[in-house]
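From: lab user (bench 3)
To: helpdesk
Subject: output format question, protein + magnesium ion

Hello, I'm new to running complex predictions and I'm not sure whether the block I got back is the full result or only part of it. Here's what I submitted:
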Amino acid sequence: VTQARTAAELVAAARDGDARAVARLISEVEDAGPRLRAVTVALMAEAGRARVLGLTGAPGVGKSTSTAALVAALRARGHRVGVLAVDPSSPFTGGALLGDRVRMQDHALDSGVFIRSMASRGHLGGLSRATPQAVRVLAGVGFDTVVVETVGVGQAEVDIAGLADTTVVLVAPGMGDGIQAAKAGILEVADVLVVNKADRDGATQTARELRQMLRLGSPSPGDWRVPVVATVASRGEGIDELLAELDRHGDWLAASGQGEVRRAARARREVEALALARLRERMRDIHGESLLDTLAADVAAGSRDPFSAADELVAAVGQPPTEGRSPCS
Ligand SMILES: Nc1nc2c(ncn2[C@@H]2O[C@H](COP(=O)(O)OP(=O)(O)OP(=O)(O)O)[C@@H](O)[C@H]2O)c(=O)[nH]1
Ligand SMILES: [Mg+2]
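Helpdesk reply: Thanks, we reran it on our side. This is the complete output you should expect:
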């Protein structure tokens, strides 16, 4: 039955709280099927409305537990929350509440929370190709907040900062002292720093070191000053403070115009990536054969220079496809 629904009908059902329709939409963007474009168009009207929070940090630092606590706090405000866990190395075990939510979601009873794991499928960095589109699905079907959890390894922090309105970087005492954090580049991408597992030794010192490292950056007036929040996510401690900082950052994004700047940069990257992917596709297959292969062979054989070969390829890609591919024409 679902199969027969049009993209617009599926989006309408998802907006009405049909969790299966939401799941189906995410699968469609993950699979990049033939309806991807129609689905995207149907989502556009609402897709810019949600707040996108990125949560990143080392494996086991408490991202899922913190997400669960944030979900609970946001639910208490009546917000609908969508969660994307990209390539989680451990499942959501964030307390009874989230367990209940997941079960309720299975039964399509609570349309207020939707949780989905996504594989990163070897994509460079921590995000999958489809993560931005999955965010658009959740935003576009009416979730007020979309949380993206991703393990902080290498490029992942930069990726998540490019996708989120607000990026939260979690460290734990002993795992991420200030210098380590600075080396890993996380101070640049964090809008809010969290020292989770503050019930453990060294939390105060880690927070102090992080604040010191942040001060070295000395922002100009009107700049956002990255706060450091201590939490014990497993007990829900510090979550209200974290939420307050997230709200404050949201206010700053709106007041400073940086929110618009970030969204425009995000859209620019997406359009550029789609255009480049299309160009690459056409380069590989021009006039039904690979002009690139022919040109490459010529350059390799020394019979032409790579500049003129590139010129010819660009000119060919820029031309509308010829109709000479079918034998009848
Ligand atoms: N002591 C203590 N343990 C915590 C705290 N927060 C989370 N944990 C525990 O740390 C472990 C890992 O928590 P997760 O929330 O799964 O961590 P994660 O960052 O999502 O892990 P990955 O997704 O595997 O990278 C779990 O056993 C949690 O119960 C905390 O504040 N204090
Ligand atoms: Mg996790």
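A quick orientation on your result: The CA atoms of residues 83 and 147 lie 5 Å apart. Let us know if anything else is unclear.
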